[in-house]
Design brief:
CATH architecture: 2-Layer Sandwich
Radius of gyration: 15 Å
Shape: elongated
Largest sheet: 2 strands, antiparallel
Mean pLDDT: 81
CATH topology: Alpha-Beta Plaits
Number of domains: 1
Order of helices and strands: HEEH
CATH class: Alpha Beta
Oligomer: single chain
Number of helices: 2
């Protein structure tokens, strides 16, 4: 999830775009990538997301697995932090 306020300014948008692109290309060649912004006319529901289209399905599957692992890791870290607060 992307903080919509972080990408309203073009300079910050380019930074976030390049950062995500750099990470995403580790999985394979990207065909297209869109980070919707309010000022570009996208629906409010899509703002805060990123859409990446890979050249082939193997790269897309690899990216999906990488994201799932990161989400699980983040959830585990959050759980550990909650447990240590108690």
């Amino acid at each position: 999830m992307i903080d919509p306020t972080e990408i309203e300014k073009d300079e910050e948008y380019r930074f976030v775009y390049e950062d995500i692109k750099q990470e995403a290309t580790k999985c394979g060649k990207i065909r297209s990538m869109i980070i919707p912004r309010r000022k570009d006319g996208y629906d409010i529901e899509s703002i805060g997301t990123c859409y990446i289209e890979y050249e082939d399905t193997q790269a897309a599957a690899l990216a999906k697995r990488a994201i799932e692992v990161k989400i699980i890791f983040i959830d585990q870290v959050a759980l550990i932090r909650l447990q240590s607060i108690k």
